[in-house]
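FYI - complex with flavin-adenine dinucleotide, inputs then prediction.
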Amino acid sequence: MTSVWTATAQLPQYDALRADARADVVVIGGGWIGLTTALLLAEDGASVVLVEAGRLATRTSGNTTGKVTSQHSAIYADLLDRHGPTKARLYADANQAAVDQVDELAQRHGIDCELIRTPAFVYSAEDDKTVRREAEVAASLGLPARFVQNPQIGPAAVAAARFDDQVQLHPARYLGGVADALTRAGGRIFENTRAVGVDEKSEGVEVQTEDGPIVRADHAVLTTLLPFGLTGAFFARTRPNQSHGIAVRLPVEAPVGMAISLDSPVRSTRPWPGGGPNGLIVVGGDHEVGSVEDTAAIYQSLIDWVGSTWNFHPEPEYRWSAHDYSTPDLLPYVGRSSGSKATFVATGMRKWGLSNGTVAAGIIRDLVAGRDNPAADLYDAGRIGDVHAVAKLVKDNLKVGKDFTTGHLSRVLHGGVDHLEVGQGGLFTLGGKTVGAYRDPDGKLHTVNPTCTHVGCALAWNNADTTWDCNCHGSRFSPDGEVLDGPATKPLDRHTP
Ligand SMILES: Cc1cc2nc3c(=O)[nH]c(=O)nc-3n(C[C@H](O)[C@H](O)[C@H](O)COP(=O)(O)OP(=O)(O)OC[C@H]3O[C@@H](n4cnc5c(N)ncnc54)[C@H](O)[C@@H]3O)c2cc1C
Ligand code: FES
C-alpha cells in the first residue's frame, strides 16, 4: 500500500552513514518532526546530523491527511475543562502560530507543495451543542473559530465549528523541500541508517547505528514517532492508534475545505488536488495497532462511506495506513527525556503532529539554545500530569500485553502453511512452534518468529498492509521481519523450517 503523497513526490535521496560523525546536534528520525527540528536548529546556527532508518518522510508523516491546522477535531472545550484557560490558550496560540510558520517556511524556501489556506470544520450530523461549545471556547482562546449551522461540506451536517485560514498541503513534497533547505543550511542527512542506542556521556551523547558508525554530539533529539527501545519509558505512557486513508475521484466537485466528523465512525476529508477538482482524501477507521483481524474490511468501510455519501461506486486510486500515539492528557510529550540532560524527545501527537510537531521543533530548538519557549512547560516530556490518567494508561498497557499474548493463541490458523494462498498470511503451528507465515504474490513463503523484539509481545498479521503489527506499543515489521516502525530496533528472527 502506498499513500497518495509518497507515490507523487520526488524525494531527495541521501547515502547511509559510513564513518563516525560529529555535530552539535544529532536528530534521529526523518519524518515531519525530525526534519523540521533539524531545519530550525540549522537555521539557528547549530551543526546538525540527521539519521533516518529508511527513507525520509515515508512512515507516518508520508501517510497523513495533510492538514496543518489548530483545529484538532473537538479539543478546546476538553483542554479548558482539564487544564484551565491559561494552558488551553497556550496550546491554541502555539498551534495557530505553527500553521503560519509552515506557510512561512514553504514560502521562504520556495517549496512547491500544493499549499493553500482554507477553512477546517469539525462537524456533527446530530449534535450541535458540542460543536457550538467547541467553537465558542476556541474563539474565546483567540482562534479564528465560529459556529456555523448546516455547513455545505459534503457529508450531512447540522452544525460545525469552522476555523478559518488553516493550511492543507502535500506533506511529502513539503518535507522534500524542508530536507533541501536543511542541506542548504549545512545540515547532513543520512538515510538507511538506523540508530540503535543513545549513550549520555559526561560531555554530550554518542549515538550507535546498526551498521557500526557512531555519531557524537552535544545533544540528541529522538523524533522516531515513539522514542525507540526503552528510552524514557514513553512506550508505557502512550497508546498507538492506526488510521486508514484512500484517495478517490467523486462524480462531482470535492467540497471546499477540510472536515472531520465528531460523530462515529470518524471520517476526516479534504480535497485531493492531484485528483483534479473531484479528488478527495478520506481518512478514518481508527483502531489500536494490531487489534483488528481483518484490516481489509476497514478500507472497504471507507469506500462504502464515500459511495453512500456521494451515491456512486468509488474505486480508490491509493490506499494506505499509519499510526500515531496518544497520551493520557491530550498533550504531546516534548523536551528533555525523563532523567536525561542531553537527549530530547517529541512524541504523542495524537494524529495532529503537523502543527504540534512544528511546535515541538521550536521547543527543542529553544531548549538546545538555552532559551525560553512559551509552550515548553505545557508539553514538558517529564511531566507527571494527571496521576490517575497516567496510572490507568500504564495499567491498560500491561493488560494489553497480557491479553494479547494469551489471545494470540486463538488466532493460530489450522491446516499447514502449504495451504496458504498467494497474498495470505497468518499464524501457524510448525514443529510445535507458533510461526508467522506469508505467501507473496510470486508464491514465495516468508516465515518469521512472530514475537516482537521490543519487549516480547505476540504480533498480529495485518492482511491489508501485509505487515506484522504489535498491539503492545505499535512496532510494525515487514513479512521478512524488518522493522518498519519502532520502538523495536531489531528485526524479527526468521524461521527456517
Ligand atoms: C492516518 C493519519 C493521518 C494523519 N493526519 C494528520 C493531519 O492531517 N494533520 C496533522 O497535524 N497530523 C496528522 N497526523 C499525525 C501526524 O502525521 C504525525 O503526528 C506526524 O507525522 C509524526 O511525525 P514524526 O516525525 O514523529 O513521525 P514519522 O513520520 O513516523 O517519522 C519518524 C521517522 O523516524 C524513523 N525512525 C524510527 N526509528 C528509527 C531509528 N531507530 N533510527 C533512525 N530512524 C528511525 C522512521 O523511519 C521515520 O521516518 C496523522 C496521523 C495518521 C496516522
Ligand atoms: S512494541 Fe513493545 S512489545 Fe512490541
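The longest strand covers residues 239-249. The mean pLDDT is 93.
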